[in-house]
Structures are given as C-alpha cells and as structure tokens.
Specification:
Two copies of one chain form a homodimer. By secondary structure, the first copy, chain A, is α/β, with parallel strands linked by helices. Chain A is built from ten helices and twelve strands. In chain A, the strands form three sheets. The first copy, chain A, has a six-stranded mixed β-sheet, with helices on both faces. At the A-B interface, helix 2, helix 3, strand 2, helix 7 and helix 9 of A face helix 2, helix 3, strand 2, helix 7 and helix 9 of B.
C-alpha cells in the first residue's frame, strides 16, 4: 500500500470511545484494568480509541455521556454497573440516554433459569432488565448475553467476564490494523528531540511516540513508530536508525 | 460528628477531575498508572474525584476539556504532554483553553541552567514555556517546578516524577477524609443484594460498594462502607454484620 492509499483509508477507520462506570475506580479502591485491555485489543484490530471517560454510578451522567459518545464515535464500549446490586445503574442510564424504557427480557430470564436450574430470585431478575430495543448477542460459554443498544456495547465490570465477552464478539470490530515498531534508545529524550522533528518532516504521516523511562539501565527512551502502511513504517524506521548515533540503539522490536 | 453534620459538610468538600493526555494510553502501548495514583491519594486526603478523562495529544481537545473541567471542579490535575518533544502539547492546549499566550519563563530557564550546569539547548528550552500568568511551585528536590494555571495543576506523565511532584504539594488538597471499612463476604452478590438494600434504607447516607471477585477461594464479594463520619460507618458496619449469616464473613478490614 502506498502512503497515499494509507491516507485515503484514514477517514474511514472505525473510531471508539470507552466509558468506565464506577465509584470504585474514582475512589481509588479498584484499579481499572478494563480500559487498558480494550485499548490494546482494539488497537490490534485496527480501531482508533479516541477517548476514555470514567464517571460515577449516576443515571444522569451515564445517560448524557453515553449518548454523546454514541453520536461521536463508531463504537462505544461501557464497562461496569450491570450487576444485581443497588449501585448498578448502567442499564437505566443507557435507556435514559436514548430516550427508551427499561424492559424485562424474557430471553434473559430463560437463560438465568437454564444456567441456575431453578426459579430466579427477584435480585437475579434485575439482571434481565434491558433498554427497550436492545440486541442480545450470545457470548461464548457465558450464560449472560452481551447487550447492545445502537452502537453501544454494554460490558460487565469484572475483568475476567469482560474479556470473555469481548473475545466472543471481537471480529465485529476489525479495521485496518496498525503496524508498530519500537526502538529503545540509550540517549536522553532532549538529546534526540531535534532528530525526531527531522524524521517527522520526512514522514509527516508517521505516528511517532517518544516515552522516557526512568530506572531503566539499558535505555532511556522508548520510541514508537506506527502507521497502517507497513512499508511506510519500515522506511521511517530505516531513516530513524540512520539518523541515530551507532551506539544509541539498545534494541528494535 | 453527627450524620447531619456530615451532610452539612457534603456540599463544601473539594472536588477534582483528572485529565490524562497521551496517545500512548489510548493506543494501549502504555498503561495509565497516574490516574489510579491520583485517585488513591486524593481519596485519602478527602477530595472527591468525580471524573477521569483520557484524550490524545491535540491542542484543541486539551483546551476545551481543561477549561470545562476548571469551571466544573475545585481542582484539575493533568498528566502527560509536557516534555521536550513534538507530541508535547499540553502547555499550548491549556494556554488556549484559558485564552492566554504561551510565554518563555526566565525562572525555569535559570533552573535548567543550574540543574545542567550549562547553556540549555533549544530542545530543553521548550520546557521553559508556560501559559502566561501561570504560578510556579517548587517541587521537592526536582529542578522542574510544578506549573499551575488557575486551579489546574500540570503534572508530567512519567509516574516517578508525577509522584514526587504530587508529594511536594499534597497538603494543598486536604478535605475531610473518608473512613473506609471493607467486608469480605463468602456469599454471592445476588444472595446478599436484598440485605444491602435494607442496610441502605437504615443508613441512607452510607457510600456502599459491592464488588464481586472471581478466582478468589476465600470470598466472593468485597463490600466497602464509607462516610466522612467515622461513627456513622461504624454503626453501619455493625448493622451489616448483624444482618449477614454468621459464617458469611471472611474478614473485616
């Protein structure tokens, strides 16, 4: 693919936003593992994650943020707030955001009955509430389906469950993947900054990242070179390696 | 403190928002360690973190988000985008957000000169750019000061440096701390949900969290009880322990 073709693609790449819902993240009691997972997986698939937002379990906030994200991005992924307890308000919030009611899903009730082998309690039945018009997607070997409203995919907050569910639907989100090269450099960032600016003048479409690392003996900066065009990244990599002093490169990945 | 007094405080507790700036987070190359750190530290100080937003290195996004957060919260903490390279656009973004220019700080240039013992390169001088009117706060044994614009505290993205800087200014952010109790429960969340609803009816101001844990042998749910009123939390804890079956409690922290 020529650079021009890569650019022609650029406008049509799928974009995504991630909405993390949970007081436990904001109050520092639980560290969010879900947004890093989504970011890595979506990047590998070729989807641009453009925004991650963490908000509390509050119906009005969920409603307004989900709706805004749904309008602005191709895909929205929410995590958290869909369990059976008092602080699980994501379904209400998303329904409010799209101006629809919350309804009881006979299909989910039936799945609960099959999974547990008995009549569901009122508490468990809370998990059968969905926004009216939602789609249910089977998710691997989990009894609980993935609930989808328009372009909003509603995931549980428990990381193990979220990952299983995502794996069962990941093929829906394929774009053109990025090619990534990493160069670990023995110089300080301020010493190589001019050279990076030169590189960007030669390769204006390159996504170039520069990340200082402290406490690493072997290198001081990790550089990342990315594009959806593998040849473009390779050319930029060679140009970078030519610009760097010979002893400056610790390794290339 | 009586519950009524705790409520009287509620309106005046300091609030905060965190803005993480960096393509490297959105693209999954680097996991954000800074927002979990801020959340834990601010919670311990008694500050309510109400929102965490991660955006890319883009001047317009930084400008609009920082300004909106500055208007809505008592404190704003930004992390990332203040190094010497091409993708470090936080200073420009924040200046644009407040409608001020970017100016050269003689004071920072002098600090660079003292720290390095030589004339700073053009690249290093990029780090002496600040929004006009910014305050500079000395930050422990680091040569680089903390730059503050109105209520926005501008932190570096490198976690070790961010932590050192935060420690040097943390006393500015003291509110009334939360008291937290954790109860690890051997029951499933759906089995104890009705009991949690009863507890909330008795203690309507309690911040009650319920977090299922998978892969834990010893317990299935971590409950968290919080309030700024220690007596209120203690009363709620006792009420909860009375409601739970005797063999259900794994431990209390």
């Amino acid at each position: 693919m020529e650079p021009d073709e890569a650019m022609a693609y650029a406008g049509s790449m799928p974009t995504a936003a991630i909405l993390i819902i949970g007081n436990e993240i904001l109050s520092g009691k639980v560290t969010d593992e879900n947004s890093p997972y989504f970011c890595r997986e979506l990047r590998a698939l070729g989807v641009d994650v453009e925004r991650i937002l963490t908000i509390s379990d509050d119906v009005q906030s969920i409603a307004s943020e989900v709706k805004a994200m749904s309008d602005a991005y191709d895909f929205v992924f929410t995590a958290g707030g869909i369990g059976p307890t008092h602080d699980d308000l994501t379904i209400e919030g998303i329904a409010a955001g799209f101006g629809v009611a919350v309804e009881h899903s006979e299909s989910i009730e039936e799945r609960i009955r099959r999974a547990t082998g008995k009549e569901p309690s009122d508490t468990l039945l809370r998990m059968a509430r969905i926004p009216t018009g939602a789609q249910l997607l089977d998710s691997g070997d989990l009894w609980f389906p993935l609930v989808v409203v328009h372009n909003v995919y509603i995931f549980p907050g428990v990381p193990e469950l979220l990952r299983k569910k995502f794996e069962s639907v990941r093929d829906r989100f394929r774009g053109v993947p990025f090619v990534l090269k990493k160069v670990f450099v023995r110089k300080r960032e301020s010493d190589i900054a001019p050279l990076l600016n030169e590189l960007l003048q030669e390769f204006p479409e390159l996504l170039l990242g520069s990340y200082p690392r402290i406490g690493q003996e072997a290198f001081h900066v990790m550089l990342t070179l990315e594009s959806r065009d593998a040849g473009y990244v390779q050319d930029a990599l060679e140009s970078l390696l030519n610009r760097l002093p010979e002893d400056a490169v610790h390794r290339v990945e």
